[in-house]
Amino acid sequence: MSNYKTVFFTLGILQIILGIFMFIPVFLQIFYDELDSSFFGASIVTIIFGTLFFLSNLDHDKKLNLQQAFLLTALSWLSIAIFGSLPFVFSTTEFSFTNAFFESMSGITTTGSTIISNLESMPKSILLWRAILQWLGGIGIIVMAITLMPIMNVGGMQLFKISNNGSSEKILPKSKEIALRLIYIYSSLTALCAISYKFLGMNYFDSLTHSMTTIATGGFSNYNQSIGFFNSFSIEISAMIFIILGSIPFIAYIKFLNGDKKIFISDFQIKTFLKIIIFSILILSIYLFINNTTQLNLRSVLFNVISILTGTGYVNAQFDSWGGFPLILFLGLMFIGGCAGSTTCGIKIFRIQILYSFISNQLKKIIYPKGIFVLKYEKNPVDNKFIASIISFIYMYLIIFFIISALLSLSGLDFITSISGAATSISNVGPGLGSIIGPNGNFSSLPDVSKWILSLGMILGRLELFAILVLFLPSFWRN
CA dist 453 to 99, 235, 410, Å? Predict the structure, then answer.
């Protein structure tokens, strides 16, 4: 295992950081007179394990090869989900390990699915911990998507590889500086969101927790009715603004700070992302106006389209009562997701764009057999390696979706619950469709085996599939 000392050394640091964050809810327990040993005990256990990993691998070589990068990525999310479940297990609310792990995995992957059936009765410390998990998961996936995923050549993410040459024309700073800037930007957006929520009527606790889950596009709320509990259009407008800010590429913020003032209106992904939102709102509004005018509520349409597309999972209406077409539309939006390098998941906008351009070029070649058509992305040529990577990613995404759907069906779930559960787990959305896991339901009544299947779907979707699947290839472990 000497070749993996850097991996375990890094895991140790991550566990120590997670353990330190577990102390934060302790202060809340004191304030709300909820003090017990759950968070303190979980923190001590996590820090001890982290310290053991840290100290036993001090002689690491401070380098990561490609094989180690894949292993670190998978183990990071898995270990944080395991240790992140300890406060739930140790709490007085009597979580089973399956439920605790499901809630923790849903939090760290910013999925937002919950097994808690009565959120209003939960201790404030548990509600805060759920928000902290999503907040940490959000910044984790941004840093990983911008620094590790391009190097690992996962699903075409190499298109966003950071240049390390010394050109004076390069806009982006190097990786370490990028990570620090990302944390600064992410924290600043969270603070602005919290201030906005407090100003618009939330109390201090709700504004803090909801700001953390909004920027992370996670969707954990403190209430069964989600954002709909507040029944405030101004709060919903603020939520939509910050959800969109969390759904656009965070590298765009860095480019903006480095002088590219037009990046937000010139970026190809951002423009397509906004067009999808506008088109979805228009088509859904027209459908509801023609077929069911009593259900037409532009406020609900606007909010739920943005929430579902970005994988946030906040709801302010029972959209599963709008009819068949809205459910199909929302299922499609779950798959699309937001922009690469953001806190969102799904297939991602850039892959949809490149697949569209590829199909368009293939049709042109049929019409003009002798023509030469170069596939470009933001005016840069895209070679066959990138195209193959993206097509294989989308293919595997759909295959795994159908496999998870079949496994959920075998575990005893009905068709709608199986299909939407698979979609919401692999796309990290949160609520599913139907009466059980729909917008006002939860996952508590599902069999334990279904929860483990969904947890697997969450980590597969969050880590772009191949970062997990490659670990099961025997050739991966060969020197």
Answer: 12, 35, 11
For residue 337, give Cα distances in angstroms to 41, 148, 306, 326, 342: 37, 20, 10, 17, 10
What 3 state SS string does 231-283 have?
CCHHHHHHHHHHHHHHHCCHHHHHHHHCCCCCHHHHCHHHHHHHHHHHHHHHH
pLDDT tens per residue, range 118-176: 899 899 999 999 999 999 999 988 888 877 777 777 777 766 665 444 333 343 446 67
| Beta-strand pair 380-381/376-377 | antiparallel
Task: Count helices and strands (H / E) in the chain.
Answer: 22, 2
The DSSP 8-state label assigned to residue 438 in this structure reads: S
Reduced to 3 states, what is the DSSP secondary structure of residue 168?
coil
CA dist 49 and 36 (Å) reads 22
Q: What is the C-alpha separation between 280 and 302, in angstroms, rounded?
A: 9
Label residues 98-108 b or e (16+ Cβ within 10 Å = b). bbbbbbbbbbb
Q: What sign for the dihedral angle of Cα 391, 350, 280, 222?
A: positive
Distance, in Å, from the CA atom of 401 to the CA atom of 335, rounded to the nearest integer, reads 10
pTM: 0.91
